[in-house]
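seq as requested:
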Amino acid sequence: MVCTLATPAWAADNATQPPVPEAAAALLDFDIPALPLDDALGRYAAQSRRSTLFRSATVQGRISSAVQGRHSPESALRLLLEGTGLVAERPDEGPAEAFVLKEATAPAPPPVLGNAPAADEDDDGYDARLQARVWAALCANPRTAPGSYRSLLRFEVDAAGSILRPRLLGSSGDGARDAALLQTLRGVRMDQPPPAAMPQPLTLIVLPRTRRDAPYCNAAR
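struct tokens:
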């Protein structure tokens, strides 16, 4: 969700991409003390310019590890999440530099012969698909297309796959765009309901783009 579209001022298939070697990635300066995880993710998003979606209930009560010095964004995020019980994954769809936060889980035991899999409360991929759907909706509206503004939004998903109660936790700096953001979110529909056990609400951070050669919305199409 850190749908990768977290901070008090402004979170496909779940295939984890191979780590980028530190030497091959751009190094950035990070200065993030150990903080409540939602605050730390906000600072990470601001310093790395990466958008994310995360489940607010998932990060609640967790404390990040401190991140200091020069790191690639991937390495910094791994350090930040150490000891939290969460991992970050890149979605196959949506903005290329976004990520989704998930519980770090042990591998599932092999199925017992003759037993069908349990009815699914497995939510693998839902966060990433939701993020991609929201991102595509934002990109389809010139008023809300990401790239030039920052915003922090929170919303829920109902049993029909519709977004409910979208709200802004920080203005984008333009009242008309704020209204358009909420209206766009209200129009998003998922093909499936959310997993029954999925913690809600979800938090989405949208950050401005600093590299003009790779616009956000081209990656969403």
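The first strand starts at residue 28 and ends at 32.
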